[in-house]
Amino acid sequence: MQIDLTNKTALITGATGQLGRVMARTLAKCGANIAIHYRSNEAQALELQDEIHSFGSRAVIVQADVTNLESILGMKAVIEENLGTVDIVVANAVVQYQWTSILEQAPEDYASQFDSCVMQSVYLAKAFAPAMMEQKWGRFVGINTECVMQNFPTQSAYIAGKRGMDGVYRVLAKEIGEHQITVNQVAPGWTISERDRANKTEHSESYEQTVPLKRRGTDQEIANAVAFLASDLASFITGAYVPVSGGNVMPSI
Q: What is the dihedral of CA 104, 108, 112, 118, to 10 degrees?
């Protein structure tokens, strides 16, 4: 048994980011063709495109503002022209900002999180769900966070955006499920990335002691969960929020 995404096309938003690039490589190694979305880092997108070509998969880089529907529709046209219909959408992009207390957080930071978490999810569904519905197969995988279950100080804008995203994804799962489209979320814990390895910051004793597995997860472990949910091995899983956090958060029943 293996994850086989041969002849599937996957769009990964924020594919040049620390987690996004590992997701792109992983899905490509499973056989998928990859649409590499970026906002501003074209050099990283081109480098990633070359990597994916070396795996034997096709790839195209696409620039877009995921908080703007017209920009997403323009991205869709480029992908379809180069790779065909998108079968798998991984919503990974999010606006970065400085975290602080609710009393100090700028109102525009809440707006940016709403736009990049909630509205991105809505726009991606509007753009790519219709073709999935027609072909009776599709996958949406949203990247959420363990933070939505922790509610720690300074996280309010991020949590508000990601909780909104959760609501959209759960409703979407019910609205398009009859077309054999699954809609799920992967919620990473504090994940070791390429940046951590380069900076030798992989370990945090205080954080690791809160995790039942007593370690931080890796970017590859997040990508593995995404690949599973994108595959036919997860064909009867939808509407799920799946923490990949070593047990640091545990949804209750």
A: 90
